[in-house]
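Journal club prep, notes for RB
We'll compare a predicted complex against what the paper describes. Inputs for the adenosine monophosphate case:
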Amino acid sequence: MLCLAPTPNSNSTMRFLTGLQPSGQLHIGNFFGAILPAVQLQHQGEAFYFIANYHAMTTMASPQTLRENTRSLAVDFLACGLDPQKAVFFEQSAVPEVNELAWILSTVCPMGLLERCHSYKEKMARGIAATHALFAYPALMAADILLYNSDAVPVGKDQKQHLEVTRDLAGKMNDTFGPDLFKLPEPIISESTAIVPGLDGQKMSKSYGNALPIFGDEKETRKLINKKIITDTTPLEAPKPTDHSIILALYKLFASPQDYDTMLARHRSGGFGYGQFKKDLFEAYWEYFRSAREKRAWLLAHPEYVDDVLSAGASRAREEASQTLSRVRRAVGLA
Ligand code: AMP
């Protein structure tokens, strides 16, 4: 991954922060857009990665689903390469201090700043209830980032505005309560992370029903690829169109460059059918996630290991959080 990584505010190691919402079965858009970049970044500095279960409550009201999704995200993130020796990995709710900081930040947060946020408007347009939590989400996100003194936050387009809110709030706090209270975190914008297309060619998204899961069942995923990728009626012997080909776009993510070139050449030459291409796509996908799948099976069989990782991560995160919060409490006159 190519990153526009900023330099840290001091000479110390760069600290990265990423939160992922436990919103259900992960798909390969989540993998290439969020998980893989996070796994790569853990080798470049100090990583704080959390499962954003407070945030998930803005759109979910089932305790059981929240618990199950939180657990499966922990397992899947670890299976995909999150290394607990390198990254501090924890549940957002294991550090309730974040709510106090969110409240304090809210006191300097102009309403207009939140009213301008696209994500809130977009979620309301999708029919999600306009609660205070949904509206105040960017203040909680700012608290997530500032609580851990993050230098840099990898963001996709959808979260860029929220990082600007964080920088605004950090600046306001510094102006009001002391110039060195918070670092201003920088966005990390990945140059190579493109939007992953779904099986129907739109952006891959759980809500569009076009997702290819990372850890799907073998038979079902094969069927999904066969049934959901709509192909044209070009006869087997004729060349196949390559522009806007969903099969090629997805195959490129999993196959070696040589195998991709072979599939491209076969599209151009004719003599190969879509059934063969879909089979090749499934096999490349299945192989790509083989070791992650094996690791996931091990993690599912060893829940106590996952508990230990999350608990150690929470302790480390809480240490950092309590130091920040003491500093902030003193600065604002609460201590
Ligand atoms: P979501 O749960 O849909 O908000 O996705 C969580 C994160 O996964 C997003 O912030 C993106 O970084 C990434 N992501 C989701 N869908 C895609 C996609 N189709 N292509 C690339 N990245 C994606």
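Talking point for the session: Residues 1-11 have pLDDT under 50 and may be disordered.
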